User: What shape does this take?
Amino acid sequence: MSAQLLDGKVMSEALRGEIALRVAALKEKGVTPGLAVILVGEDPASQIYVRNKGVGCEQVGIHSVTIRLPETTAQAELEEHIRRLNADESIHGILVQLPLPKGLDEAAALAVIAPEKDVDGFHIQNAGKLLNGLPGVVACTPKGALEMIRRTGIDLNGKEAVVVGRSNIVGKPMAMLLLQQNCTVTMCHSRTVDLAAHTRRADILVAAVGKAKFITADMVKPGAVVIDVGINRVDGKVVGDVDFDAVREVAGWITPVPGGVGRMTITMLLANTVEAAERTLHA
Ligand code: NDP
Assistant: This one.
């Protein structure tokens, strides 16, 4: 039987409607949520992501600014832009589009962002809060993926969750969020021995590897929730880390690529920006 589709476009439309209402409520109180995106260099994928973020902001009424800097930008200059935005009261969220060109220090740049404006949730303070179970800004991709998992209606208590990939921006925060939901979490990576033995146990399987069609049908437990974070370009087409056509015959729920986690990621960025603006009312 074919898996049920977890459609990121449909979920996002509903969520963006709710976000737009929160933006309208903020505007009535004199606050227009503002997001600033810093884009350094000409990376084509980054250009597309930044454009989509701008479209999302416009859709819900968030004021968005894109600061485009040349590839030759020095670290000090980049950090100066971030500091200026930290001090700008019309900006509630700051996002430095990654990856940065070679020669720029991503970790150092992210550390300069004021944690309360870190709408990507990459600042070490927000990552640490997640680890400690404290309220903070949660990274958009895992936050969106968890929202999709929740919408299956499955009781997550005690479920086996397997996350393939251990990056700071996806794999690790995803594992922490699933742990908070009382899943029993296994993290897999490139040194994992017999990966399929782990993935086949998963009630919830999250793939964040960056390799096209890496998760095959024989690696999936029948009825599992399969969340495909991967974005890979093959022959001009965007495909995920999951062999979608084959895996959908085994899984219970599956996210498509495109139109899955990627769409939800931008929606969570909008939500994080609105939350940051709402916090200024209570500050
Ligand atoms: P990284 O390259 O930072 O991490 C990839 C992870 O996959 C690493 O932990 C690596 O292990 C692991 N890995 C690599 N090969 C294997 C293997 N053979 N077996 C098991 N694990 C393996 O990528 P990101 O986390 O940044 O991104 C992952 C994917 O998600 C990419 O396709 C990216 O484009 C996409 N992405 C999508 C987003 C969205 O909005 N949908 C947002 C962010 C990313 P090790 O640590 O041992 O090297």
